């Protein structure tokens, strides 16, 4: 323990994987030799994974899942490491999202990943490939991650999910008419779930709109708060309530000004008529 290297799991997906491996091992009281024997690797190799000196492989991630009986937890983390097309900070956010008791998100321009259909997610990813922003392999990983995030939300107990979409999310055409109709139908289905609330923030809110950039606020099982926002270069996790609480207040103000869920669904259904 004297030379134990401290880890910053938020520094990179590779560091997050290593930190998780070490944490789970420590929780079980296993040494690196103990885990190495269970996984069929040398303790030296596992040490390099835990400290972020080496990137994990799919084989290692799957063996970790078997050793910890983790049901693809480490395989999902490996996919995040592999997908260099993701913004820095986003993989760590996804981990917290998967355990949150409450999720509050506001989005502009595009439907957020938690509500996307596979076809809608594919259309967005393919456009990024055409622009040269990501590779085809990274596009496939992005679409897979969207599906995995949605599956994670079906856990028990299910989280409460509050979503406010700027009206621009509904108006921006993504994919052909079939893709748009299926995506709008998905929003209506989402609104009907017992653990969700969906609202639209219409354009005519004007200056009454308290948020202009996408934001997500998570309430974790211990009732602590965390926010996540993105710039063009990276995602940022914020745990300091000095900064998170004003965002939560602004979110509540936005909910009060946005359309009710019934009115929001009516707006979506009206738009659906134009895609049929």
Detailed description of the structure:
- The protein has helices spanning 13-27, 32-39, 43-50, 58-68, 73-82, 90-97, 118-130, 136-152, 167-171, 177-191, 241-257, 261-272; strands at 102-107, 160-166, 196-201, 215-219, 225-230, 235-238.
- It has twelve helices and six strands.
- Strands 3-2-1-4-5-6 form a six-stranded mixed beta sheet, sandwiched between helices.
- 50% of the residues lie in helices and 12% in strands.
- The longest helix is centred in the middle third of the chain and has 17 residues, at 136-152.
- It is globular, with a radius of gyration of 20 Å.
- The protein has two domains: 13-82, Orthogonal Bundle (434 Repressor (Amino-terminal Domain)), CATH 1.10.260; 90-115 and 149-275, Endonuclease, Chain A, CATH 3.30.870.10.
- The chain has 276 residues and is of the alpha/beta class.
- The N and C termini lie far apart (64 Å).
